[in-house]
Structures are given as C-alpha cells and as structure tokens.
Design a protein that fits this description.
heterodimer; A: about 80 residues; mainly alpha; 4 helices; elongated; B: about 525 residues; two-stranded antiparallel ribbon; two-stranded antiparallel sheet; 19 helices; globular
Chain lengths: ~80, ~525
C-alpha cells in the first residue's frame, strides 16, 4: 500500500512537471517562440555541422591511444622553437 | 632542430579564438548583471505586492531571457577550438581544465533546465516566494557558472596547483584548492562579475532613458534607473577596487604585462600612473634607448603606480627594459635571458627523457624522472620557465605594448565615466529633474555601447597582454597551436563571423522590438 502511494506520488510529480513544461511551451509568447527557434537552429549548426565537419578532436582522430598522443605532444614540446609576437 | 611554425596559422587561430571569445562576451556580462537587477525588482514586488513592480520585473526579465537564450552555448565553440586548433595545448593542460569545466557544465544544465524554466513559465503557476527563489538562484547560478570558467582562465595566467608528468606529457592537478583560490582567479572572478553588474546596470539605465526620451513609462523608467544607478554605482566602485587588486597581483605574476599596460620601459621609484597618454606610432616594440620618450603626450599622476603596486612611493616599479635586463629582485623575478636559459635546460631534460623512452632505455628515463621531474627544485626553479625555451630573444616575451596600453586606459577611463553617470543619475532623480535634462538621458543611452566597449577592452588587455603565452611562462601560443592548414582555420573563422553576427543581429532585433513594445499591461 505504501509503495502504491509512493508510486502515485512520484507519477503525479512527473505528470505535474511534464504539464508545467508542456503548458509553458504551448502558451509561450511570440518572442519566446522566436528565441527557441534560434536556439534549435544554433545548436544544430554547432553540434551537427561545425563539430562534426569542421572541429574534430585532432589528437583523438589522428591517434589510436593515449600513449601515441602523449608521444606526439612530447615531440612537439621538444622540437618546436619559434616565437610569436 | 627548429621546426618552422606557420605564423599565419598561429595568427588565424588566435584571430578565430579572439572573435568567438569576444562575441561570446557580448552575451555573458548582461546575463550576470541583469539577472541580479531582475531579482531585486521581483523582491520588491513580493514584499510590496504592487502589480507595477511585477510588470517592471517581467519587462526586464523578457530582455534578460532574450539575451540568455541567444547567448546560450556560444561558449561551447571555444571548447571545439581547443580540440582542433589548439590540440597541443589541450593535451598539455591535462585535467586542470576538466574539473572546473565539468562543474560549470553540470551547474549550467541544472540551472537552465529548472530555475530558468520556473522564471519564465512559473508566473501564476508556482507560489510567489518559490518564483522569487528561482529568480535569485538563476542570478547566483549564472555568476557561479562564470566562476569555473574564470578559474580555468586564471590558471592560464598563473599556473598553480599542478605537476608535469613527462610520461603523459600532461599537467596533473595536485591541489584543487590552489587552483580555485589562485590569487589571479579570485581577482578575476570579482572584477569580472562586478563589471557584469555594472554593464547590466548601464543597460537598464540606457533603455530606461530611451523610454523617458520617448515620454513613455516614466514611473517604470525612473524606478528602474534608481535601482540600476545604485547597483551600478556600488558595482563600479567594486570594479575599481578589484581592478586595483588585480594590478597588484599582475605586477607579481605577469610583470611584463603590467609594465606594458603602462608602456613603462624604464622603471623607477615614485613611478607615476599615466592617466591619459598618446603613444608614438611604431611597429617595433621599442626596446632600445629611444623608447624613453615613446609618448607623444601624457598626463601622469605622480607616485600612484608605486603606491598601487607596493603601497608606498618608495617602491621601485620595473619597466620592460628592467625586466629584460635585471628582473626584479624585490619580487624574485629573474631577468628574461636567465629564464630563457632555465627554460632551455628544462627542455633539454625533457628531450633526454623522450629519447631514452624512444630507445627503450628504462634505467635512464627512470633516473631522469626521479632526479628531475619528481624533484621540486627542478620543477620550481627550471620547469616553471619551460616556455622561455621557445623564445628567440628576450623581446619575444613582450606583448604588443600599444594594444595593452590603450585597452587598459580605455577600460579605466570608461570605468570612471560610469561612476560619474551613476552619481549624476541619482542626483537628478533625487532633484526630480531627470526628465528635463534630455542631454543626460542621451548620455545614458549612448553609455550602452560604451559599457560593452569597456568590457571587451578588459578582455583584450587580459588576453593580448598575456602574449606570447597561452599558459604564462610554460607554453607560448606558437607551440600550442595544431599543425593544420591556415586555410581551414580561415574558413571556420568566416563561418563563425557569419554565425555570430547573425545571432547578434537576431538578439538586437528581438530586443529592440520588445523594448519598443514596452511592458505589458
């Protein structure tokens, strides 16, 4: 019986939270809708275009394991000798 | 031994990072400041129960929401760039960045998905006090979120709390508290959040001034100016105070940057602070004797620089030439050629370690590890200057003096201007003649772009003044950069420029529309 009450309580909490967000989104003002469209487009560009096609993690992509990565960076740290401005 | 690093690659990678960071910083400070102003207005509404205050709160909350939503996730691009354009750096910093950025990420996620939602969806659905609590939590959370980013940045300005592991070629955090309470982090966090509060205040004052110029919403505008002018005045005084704290720390941990801010080539006791100055045009870093007169004109406040750095006019403030030739014995700062020697020694040890590992000579690299990398003296006396091994001459350790000088002075002058604006706004409000003084309403409106310029100038000083370092004394930008084609960096530079400009245009257009619409009845 206690479990049932607990389940009811938790499901009603989930339902209330869902309703809260649902009503919030469906009754949103026009500026709210606009910024949400911008957010979605922005996140899509960031994570599905820029990250995938333009910004790979170079060391992850070019080397198989951390030992190779550290060897490469160690190489860079002991070879390069150039000053910037 | 010398591998040529394509300087155009370094320049484009830096330009891209600067572009994304500066655009990102257009959104952040308004979130930091406006969130608190909204929380204060809502507090008055909850205490008084007056609907006008609720209306006012909702108006400014709308503008906060637009800025927050457009700015969200713009900072993530900087993390993308670390992995692609700055992969050597990313690897070298190891887990130092991981912990603060993970905390920031978790905090931001919970903040955004819960309390921001209550702020905007919760009116009339949750209790007044719960709503108010959510608004305050958003304000506190946004500022705490900034803390972790600033802790990471401060570590780059003053690396502490770590050891370098030659096996992994990474730095490992050994003291989280040293990283968190790094003096640069404390100064930077306080200075940045108070400057955000000031920016939010000037924004509210400017928009309210526009409403008054249009003879609209006088009641709301006056009260908004009252709250923001008080908040802005207190914040601007704190900005000045924490700026002074930062200067003292800089003189110790980034002395060349400090001297460059003042274009001080030859140090002295009783050193004066340049209140206003125009530097001679030069492409050189002017490190010869001619530099003694590198100003076209200047107005100096006698003795103030010595007092700021050491609390007394008798304190010697070293100039750029002093730091190169003699260092600063009072602060245990070595001459730059000496730091270069020590850096080269550390690099030689690392090279020996690498070679021993390459040929599988375990005995030798165990000895090197034990005698050097597990030896505190080697770490504190030699490895801390590792980055100097990559410099060709001591002058390479000097940042662009013109950029450092002008960004610093522009920031400070505008900072004092905003103190004046806040004071005048309060005086006119109490004398009840603000509406009559249209010239001052225009000044408040024009202050909006000016406060953004001063905020960006602060970051230009922080980041350009740190050059040539990406991590102070440990790693120059030329070593940190990934070996990729400059063309690909240029392509993404243009993509970002287009994306961010579109986001900014969208923000400004939606915001202007909401301001013109005004508060809802």
């Amino acid at each position: 019986m206690f479990m049932e009450t607990g389940q009811k309580k938790s499901s009603s909490l989930v339902a209330r939270v869902f309703r809260f967000y649902y009503e919030g989104f469906t009754t949103m003002s026009s500026w709210g809708r606009k910024v949400w469209i911008i957010i979605i487009i922005k996140l899509f560009i960031l994570f599905f275009i820029l990250k995938i096609f333009f910004f790979p993690d170079l060391l992850k992509k070019n080397f198989e394991n951390d030992a190779q990565r550290s060897e490469y960076v160690l190489d860079q740290l002991t070879k390069t000798t150039v000053a910037d401005d | 031994m010398i591998d040529a690093v394509d300087l155009s690659l370094v320049d484009w990678s830096r330009a891209q990072f600067a572009l994304t960071a500066m655009y990102h910083w257009l959104f952040v400070p308004l979130t930091l400041g406006l969130s608190f102003i909204v929380a204060m207005m809502e507090t008055i509404y909850v205490r008084t129960g007056r609907e006008e205050w609720k209306r006012m709160t909702r108006f400014w909350m709308t503008l906060f929401g637009i800025n927050f939503a457009i700015g969200v996730a713009t900072g993530i691009i900087l993390e993308f760039e670390f992995g692609t354009n700055w992969s050597n750096y990313s690897w070298f910093v190891g887990d130092i960045f991981g912990a603060p950025l993970a905390i920031e990420g978790i905090l931001a996620f919970f903040l955004e998905s819960t309390f921001v939602a209550v702020m905007f969806f919760g009116w009339n659905k949750v209790g007044k006090k719960f709503h108010l609590t959510s608004t305050w939590l958003v304000a506190v959370g946004a500022n705490l979120s900034a803390l972790w980013i600033l802790v990471a940045n401060a570590w780059m300005q003053n690396p502490v709390g770590m050891v370098f592991n030659p096996e992994t070629a990474r730095n490992e955090m050994v003291n989280f508290w040293a990283v968190l309470f790094n003096q640069v982090a404390v100064d930077k966090f306080l200075h940045t959040i108070f400057s955000g509060f000031l920016l939010g205040s000037v924004f509210v004052m400017g928009v309210s001034a526009w409403l008054m110029l249009k003879k609209r919403e006088e009641w709301l505008a006056k009260r908004s100016i009252l709250i923001s002018a008080i908040f802005g005045l207190l914040s601007s005084l704190m900005v000045a105070f924490t700026g002074d704290m930062s200067a003292k720390t800089l003189a110790q941990v980034q002395p060349v940057k400090f001297a460059s801010m003042e274009a001080l080539y030859d140090g002295s006791k009783d050193a004066g602070l340049v209140a206003f100055g125009i530097l001679k045009k030069s492409d050189e870093k002017i490190l010869d004797e001619k530099a003694a007169s590198n100003f076209v004109m200047k107005i100096k406040i006698p003795g103030l620089l010595s007092i700021m750095t050491g609390g007394s006019r008798d304190v010697f403030v070293p100039g750029i030439r002093d730091l190169i030739n003699n260092g600063d014995q009072n602060r245990n700062i070595l001459p730059i050629p000496e730091m270069m020697q020590r850096g080269k020694f550390a690099k030689g040890v690392l090279d020996d370690y690498k070679r021993a590992r390459l040929v599988g000579n375990r005995d030798q690299y165990d000895v090197i590890r034990r005698e050097y990398f597990e030896n505190k003296t080697f770490f504190n006396e030699y490895f801390r200057y590792f980055g100097y091994a990559f410099l060709n001459s001591p002058e390479d350790a000097v940042p662009n003096v013109q950029v450092s000088f002008y960004s610093f002075h522009l920031m400070v002058m505008l900072g004092f201007f905003f103190i004046l604006v806040c004071v005048l706004a309060l005086i006119m409000l109490f004398r009840n003649n603000l509406v009559k003084n249209k010239w001052f309403l225009w000044i408040m409106l024009i202050s909006i772009p000016l406060v953004y310029i001063s905020s960006e100038a602060g970051w230009i000083l922080a980041e350009m003044g740190r050059q040539p370092w990406i991590i102070q004394n440990l790693m120059p930008v030329s070593v940190a950069v990934s070996q990729i084609s400059a063309g690909s960096v240029l392509t993404t530079f243009i993509l970002f420029a287009v994306l961010f400009t579109a986001l900014l245009a969208a923000e400004v257009s939606i915001m202007v529309k909401q301001i013109k619409t005004g508060p809802k009845h």
